[in-house]
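Folds vary. Our protein:
___
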Amino acid sequence: MKKHIDKIKILFEALPYIRKFYGKTVVIKFGGAAMVEEELKKGFARDVVLMKYVGINPVIVHGGGPQIGGFLKRLGMESKFVKGYRVTDVETMDVVEMVLVGKINKEIVGLINHFGGRAVGLGGKDGSLIEAKRLRIRGARMGMAGEVKSINPHVIESLEKSNFIPVIAPVGLGPDGMSYNINADTVAGRVATALNAEKLILLTDVKGVLDNKGELMSTLSVKGARSLVRRKVATEGMVPKLTCCVEAVSNGVASVHIIDGRVEHAVLLEVFTDAGVGTVIR
């Protein structure tokens, strides 16, 4: 009987958080090991379904860098990055769109639906969801790498009102009618801002944001995040993550969480407990 009572206590522990976030939108950037390891993928899908059933509105934005890199390698094509962003020529863009929109997006949708959710997959072209522009980095030719010009939140809001879970691939539509490859962290941040989300959660393959001694920073201010980028303590893929976090918090998102997606049920731990599994930026 004790084990059953312990389960009830866990529910009561989560109750204040369920009450606090009921009816609120939480944008989750799904990436890293959590997208690759089968048990983590299944655990993430269950977490999302549970959140929806207790009245929270999860919106998923997924990456796919390792999968894109693997596919390019099989085709004999080289992956190049500048400041954490993928250089994307026309041929690479074809692969990116095929892998993100045609494969990964549908796998995530299928998994969520398998565990009782009602997920719908979207690319940036659907309903003009993501309007893109070319990414400019001084001294580099980025090709079809893009950045977000605007987000159309009405598409997502319509799905939320109908009890669906939106799953978004970070491919935008440019003014020239071409597809643009956009960093998934950046898209997640702009989606969170457009939806006035309560939380933005980024799943990563590290413990969170680390200081110059390699120690986890459990909390971080906007000023502190900017300092880490400026002093180059944050490098490579952490740069776009912190950049999108700063922008989201500065534009009304209550809190942003960079968490370790290698931890089982990391999303639920971050939302429903005091413990947390990464860095929170407020």
Q: What stands out?
A: DSSP finds nine helices and 14 strands in the chain. The mean pLDDT is 89. Residues 44 and 265 are 6 Å apart (CA to CA).
